[in-house]
Design a protein that fits this description.
This protein is of the alpha+beta class. The protein contains 14 helices and 19 strands. The strands form five sheets. It has a six-stranded antiparallel sheet with strand order 15-14-13-12-11-19, sandwiched between helices. A four-stranded antiparallel sheet has the order 4-5-3-6, with helices on both faces. The protein has three domains: about 80 residues, ACT domain (Alpha-Beta Plaits); about 90 residues, no CATH class; about 180 residues, Gcn5-related N-acetyltransferase (GNAT) (Aminopeptidase), CATH 3.40.630.30. A hairpin with a 2-residue loop joins strand 17 and strand 18.
Length: about 450
């Protein structure tokens, strides 16, 4: 370590010997320059000496050029460049990644719309042993957004990749970890999302979220004014607005990454497909036998079940309705249109053998979060119906790749608390404005098998 780089109490240390050497070098340089000037200007061989010096300098430059072309050199490293690899674990405090492992990354960057720009980017990635698994281009008015799926060495950090991309001309670079689902190419993924949307209207928000990545999706009620949004929708940087097929507006926000015209066109195509197909809900149902021997039917519900749901409300006690809706009991019916609409989530209904509706379970898309809610008629409580509905809702959330679900209830609602605990999943408890919010984490593997354990005997209807 030099005298200059050492620091004492946070300040650089300068030694007097270095100052003396620098002064001596300065006086020597002045003396040599004066001697050369006198020799060239006043000596008899001055012009010849000047010509010989020029020839020697030209020959030296030519030799250096030849040497540089025939012998590789390491690329220059800036003061802020620490290289693509991470520091050893003893310096960073983090465990060192296995050099033989690999990591999947999704990366997006903007390059100039000029020949060779993409080639320079690919060369920079290849220099760090990064394999390009897929590439999509999103043309813009100025430049092109390139979206990559990369497989990088396990010890190569995200900062190393973005630094290499920046040096190769990429701007506005964004990168995050990818998983096996991202290995599907874009056309196949879009066709799969379209097929899911065609089968179930409730899939539209999920399809948009999986198409566009981490984003927040909100839909205004059907009665909201949508005149400000044209039929073809609007795109403003990181916010897109699309007319919902049944009225209202679908708003999609992704503040961390602006949308491209290509993404906007894909999202609009999904919404248009949904509008053409109209309302639809899968009509499959399961007949379950409760421990006491009674048979019940569990099926998907929608707005066609509105009258039956209102009738169930009339049979429920005020305490049960208050536990579910956390507000005036007289307002309970007002929520049903929203809850039963497939635009805002999925609803499961429980019917008795006589066809009477005795339970509802809701999986609601709340922006970028997911809520679960249950209502079971008083006469049918404590029979395992709530637990069965909750297990099925969690299975739906897992298939939709939700990271968690939360339930809003009261501490005195022991049935809901017990049902959440019965999932066997990691739970978080929070008190917000006098209510209890229980969040179940779904990220662990094998969640579907875990929550399905202990389910009543079922048979397909």
């Amino acid at each position: 370590m030099s005298d200059v780089t050492r620091a004492r109490h946070g300040r650089p240390v300068h030694h007097w010997r270095r100052d003396v050497i620098e002064l001596a070098a300065l006086f020597t340089a002045v003396a040599v320059a004066d001697a050369v000037a006198n020799l060239v200007g006043h000596g008899p061989d001055g012009p010849a000496l000047l010509l010989i010096s020029a020839v020697v300098l030209v020959a030296t430059a030519a030799f250096h050029t030849w040497w540089a072309r025939h012998h590789g050199h390491a690329p220059p490293v800036s003061d802020t460049d620490t290289g693509a690899r991470s520091l050893p674990s003893e310096q960073t405090g983090q465990p060192t990644a296995d050099a033989g492992a690999s990591t999947l990354w999704r990366m997006r960057t903007t390059v100039r719309d000029a020949p060779g720009s993409l080639a320079a980017l690919c060369t920079a990635l290849a220099g760090h042993r990064v394999d390009i698994l897929s590439l999509q281009t999103h043309p813009l008015a100025e430049g092109t957004v390139d979206e990559f799926l990369l497989r990088a060495p396990g010890d190569l950090e995200a900062s190393g990749i973005t630094r290499a991309v920046s040096l190769a001309g990429g701007t506005g670079t964004w990168i995050e970890r990818a998983d096996a689902h991202d290995l599907v190419d874009a056309p196949t993924r879009v066709l799969g999302l379209a097929a899911r949307t065609a089968l179930d209207a409730a899939e539209l928000p999920l399809a948009l979220r999986q198409l566009l990545g981490r984003c927040t999706i909100r839909q205004s009620p059907a009665g909201a004014r949508s005149e400000d949004v044209p039929a073809e929708g609007t795109l403003e940087d990181s916010v897109m607005r699309l007319r919902a097929p049944e009225g209202g507006v679908i708003t999609v926000e992704r503040p961390y990454l602006p949308f491209t015209p290509t993404e906007f066109a894909r999202a609009r195509a999904l919404v248009e497909l949904d509008a053409v197909l109209g309302p639809r809900v899968p009509r499959s149902q399961d007949v379950l036998t409760l421990p006491e021997g009674n048979d019940i039917t569990v099926r998907r519900a929608d707005v066609d079940d509105l009258d039956a749901a209102k009738a169930m409300h009339e049979r429920c006690t005020p305490r049960t309705l208050g536990m579910r809706y956390h507000g005036p009991v007289g307002d309970a019916d007002r929520y049903l249109n929203h809850l039963l609409s497939p635009r805002f989530g999925r609803t499961l209904a429980v019917e008795t053998a006589s066809g009477r509706l005795v339970g509802l379970g809701h999986l609601l898309w709340d922006g970028d979060e997911t809520e679960v809610a249950l209502l079971v008629e008083d006469e049918w409580q404590r029979r395992g119906i709530g637990s069965e509905l909750l297990r099925r809702l969690v299975e739906m959330a897992v298939s939709a790749r939700c990271e968690s679900v939360y339930a809003v209830t009261q501490a005195s609602n022991t049935g809901m608390v017990a049902a959440m605990r019965g999932l066997g999943l990691p739970l978080d408890y929070q008190i917000e404005e006098g209510t209890l919010v229980i969040t179940a984490r779904l990220a662990s593997e094998g969640v579907v098998k875990q929550v399905s354990a202990g389910s009543p005997e079922r048979r397909r209807g």
